[in-house]
Design a protein that fits this description.
Helices cover about 80% and strands about 0% of the residues. The protein is an all-alpha fold.
Length: about 50
Amino acid sequence: MLQDFEKALLAEFLRTYMTEFAEIAQKHGLPGNTVAHEILKRLEKERNHV
């Protein structure tokens, strides 16, 4: 399980590089934008419950 600082770093990374992440994922046939948004929602939800 990720530590709080790791979750914060990952959330910031996803916010900053969402478009690039989605483009790379799409090139490989993955739903990158959906995946990134879901990860970000979960991280923010966990952070708000702490």
